[in-house]
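Quick one: structure for this chain?
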Amino acid sequence: MLKKMMKRLKKEEKGFTLIELLAVIVILAVIAVIAVPLIGKIIDNTKKDADVATAQQIYDAAKLYVTGELAGDFNGSANTGLTVYLSDLISKKYLANNTALPSSKNNLVSGSSTASATEVVFDTNGDLTSVKLSDGTTTKTIDANELKLGKGE
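Got it. Here's what it folds into:
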């Protein structure tokens, strides 16, 4: 009997016990439960910030367009301010034709005076009112305050 016990003690068993494996799996599950929502939120915020950056680029192109093509006149029809459409910016080469909405990765709609067109709206003083980004399925309106902050809300 003593001989059998000594044999068992001398025998080197390699590997992990079931309890050790379960403990590691539980720890990994807890980490995943914490990390996945945080990563999802970071990705959403990044998409919003990218959309705001695109709106800033379109706004800057619209300012250059008004200065270069309209001699800085921000008065639209009936002195209500000016709306610059993406199609105007593309046709005069202020923006590339394949400008896309980063959050959806679809090209922006470049029509003019349609409900789904991408546009920049100025008041009569030349101050920005809003930038509307539309890819045909998604429309995002970014106001002047959001553009100044440089971050999506």
